[in-house]
Amino acid sequence: MRNDTMGIILTGDEQIAPLTDIRANSALPIAGRYRIIDFVLSNMANAGIVNIGVATESNYSSLMDHIKSGKPWDLDRKNQGLNILPPNLEHKSYGVIKGNIDLLSGIRDYIHKSHQTYVILSLGNIVCNIDYEAVINSHIESQADITAVYKNLTGVEESDLTRYTLMEMDENGRVTDVEIQPYYPKTNKASMEMYVMEKALLESIVDECSARGDTDFVKDAIIKKMGGMRIFGYEFDGIFFKIDSMKSYYAASMSFLDSECRKELFNRERPIYTKTKDQSPAKYGADAVCTNSFISDGCVIEGTVENSILSRGVKVAKGAVVKNSIIMQDSVIDEGVEVNHVVFDKEVVITKGRKLIGQESYPLAISKGTII
Amino acid sequence: MVSKNCVAMILAGGQGSRLGALTKNVAKPAVPFGGKYRIIDFPLSNCVHSGIDTVGVLTQYEPLELNTYIGNGNPWDLDRSLGGAYVLPPYQSGDTGEWYKGTANAIYQNLGFLERFDPKNVLILSGDHIYKMHYGEMLKAHQESGAAATIAVMPVPWEEASRFGIMNTDESGEITEFAEKPAEPKSNLASMGIYIFKYDVLKKYLTDDERDPESSNDFGKNIIPKMLADGQKMMSYRFEGYWKDVGTIQSLWEANMDLIDDPPKFDLSDRKWVIYSRNYALMPHYMGENAIVKNSTITEGCDINGTVEHSVIFSGVTVGKGAVVKDSVIMPGAVIGDGAVIEKSVVGSDAVIGAYAKVGVSEATDDNPYKSKYCTHGIVLIAGEAEVPANSDIVKESMVTA
């Protein structure tokens, strides 16, 4: 147990239509049986953090249903544990959440009442398996005011770097400049949107920002106060995906077909937990062909599946061909259907003989419950 | 304590010695079954679906794994404030205390537990059968008939009837005679080892039975015949459906195979009668570039790079490149090396089959050092954590221990 640190997860607001029409993006299904937030939650749980607040913005019912009591993460505690914190709009003059400061301000009572010294703040749409314990220890050791986790994105194209908040650091690792999604990136050190600081500091930042009408933690707190605060970078050298667009969602999903990626993200020392559904094992029929795919329990496969990710309870009928696709829970691919480069949300049904072909750069996404 | 209409007691203390090396370190109810389950998941899940929320699990033989598996009962939704799942090992009290001597004695020793719930009825189950059954309907029939006891029976083929405890009944279903393994059965209705007793009657008979030094303290041998002799009203409750006693290697293998027939003899995918089990944090299974799979079930955490045909693959199993697994049951965490060929085998948890080994392929020989009386019908058993060296040839009907 790590009794000196609490965790706060901010569910992001990046829209990935049509998948986020019905859910917060942190609740997006990924890698078959998981939701994106499982990674950050498990990382915190694996570091022994036992007081975690999930600040939600909108569309949080699917997230609440997923997390419930926090049992899968061993966070159904008598004291503290996992808390889902719906937006508190009462004290807002305009009633609209304009930035993460508003979110944090809405849960300031919860933050204040927590007895931990440190807080680790993370966005909920980050996929990685990180040792938070090491991050917290490094923060304490360096006597930084804020420790910001980053990843050195060497070899990543400039056009892709512009998705990130980029940080410049001096030789001691102290952050000297931060730019949010700059058009011309000056560095390749991308912030992973995870910050460790003393809880008291976070409280005073939130208080000050919200008193001034500022709305963004990075823009208004980190950037404006950089001179007066010791902000240090912590380099993470593992696999890291930021899920902020259909393209990044599709690419991150497909990387689970790589064994090195699976080995790192689902390592035995720091397991990734998720809600269990007690589905029976996946079943393969006499004519099934299934290669290079990631298949969840409850699937019934009688057709062909290649280079694809199937969530729980997906049915692929005889003669159907599924290639390069992400098929979410309980979708049905009927006889003779051909799909390639598609993303099916839950409970999509594609009837006999239909064809749907997307492109790798533009996967065809179908919203929940659609019948084709 | 709130009184309960019916409390279930699962007899889970048996060793299951006919399962050979599979039950060396675990009790039979904890033996893995059906890809991601253990045998005890079936009676536990049946209880929950039947509206029975108080279940005592009587353990004795190698209880560690079973006790940790059941834990606080949460996977079956049995972590309740009033009732829930209880693991009940034998205990010492005052200057007495002894092992469970028989099925009836096991319940007798736990009358104190039952007393706390002041139950009207007690459901006795065994922890080694595979089936889906609504005990609530049986309880309803039991209460409507006003019987002192109701026993679940099922029709078995006449030629096999002499292997079972056979109930002779009148046309109303009332039991007139009970014959344990009769040479010449008068009926083909076999007892399934599922009893519902009125609690006060059960308590009296268990207490009387305990005083009888001649008794072997067994429900089938002592309690049921005694109640019949005393003229207690005993009803049969007919069950039709899949039910299997997985007491031998052969029947365990067969019951697993029943899941992958087309259509399956026993279906686990019914979302209305989910079999719950303790789930571990494992990723979905990965089917490699060269994987070939037919008529099989595969579950979380597996990494399949070879061929799997007509087999049940449990969680976290690795099948190497070019390996062939056919008509087999591969239990959790086993590793099948590259190019190994496994046929008609039961491979225990975390066993390692070396590269290019042959298991269950070659015909049985007379001088086979691994020959075992537990392995019949050509089946091979590789015990949990056993290692089969690379390139070795394990012939049919062998048992390889760790």
Low-confidence stretches of chain A: none
Largest interface: A-B, 39 and 38 residues
Biggest sheet strand line-up of chain B: 5-4-1-8-13-10-14
Query: What number is the mean pLDDT of chain A?
Result: 89
Report the biggest beta sheet of chain B as strand number plus sense, adding barrel if it closes. 7 strands, mixed
Briefly note the structural class of the backbone of chain B: alpha/beta
Mean pLDDT of chain B: 91
Supply the number of helical segments of chain A: 10
What is the strand tally of chain B?
Answer: 33
Overall outline of chain A: globular
Question: Judging by the overall fold, what is the CATH architecture of the largest domain in chain A?
Answer: Alpha-Beta Complex
Q: DSSP helix count of chain B?
A: 8
What is the tally of beta strands of chain A?
A: 28
Task: Note down, in words, how this protein is organized.
The complex is a heterodimer of chains A (372) and B (402). Chain A is of the alpha/beta class and 372 residues long. Helices cover 23% and strands 27% of the residues of chain A. Chain A has helices spanning 37-46, 61-67, 100-106, 108-113, 132-142, 158-161, 199-212, 217-225, 246-254, 259-265, and strands at residues 5-10, 29-30, 34-35, 51-55, 81-85, 118-123, 126-127, 146-152, 165-169, 175-180, 189-198, 231-235, 241-242, 282-284, 289-291, 293-295, 300-301, 304-306, 309-310, 315-316, 321-323, 326-327, 332-333, 338-340, 342-344, 349-350, 355-357, 364-366. In chain A, the strands form seven sheets. Chain A has a seven-stranded mixed sheet. In chain A, strands 14-17-20-23-26 form a five-stranded parallel sheet, with no helix packed on it. A five-stranded parallel sheet of chain A has the order 15-18-21-24-27, with no helix packed on it. The longest helix of chain A is centred in the middle third of the chain and has 14 residues, at 199-212. Chain B is α/β, with parallel strands linked by helices and 402 residues long. The longest helix of chain B is centred in the middle third of the chain and has 13 residues, at 199-211. Chain B is globular and about 65 Å long. The termini of chain B are far apart. Strand 14 of chain A pairs antiparallel with strand 18 (296-298) of chain B, so a sheet runs across the interface.
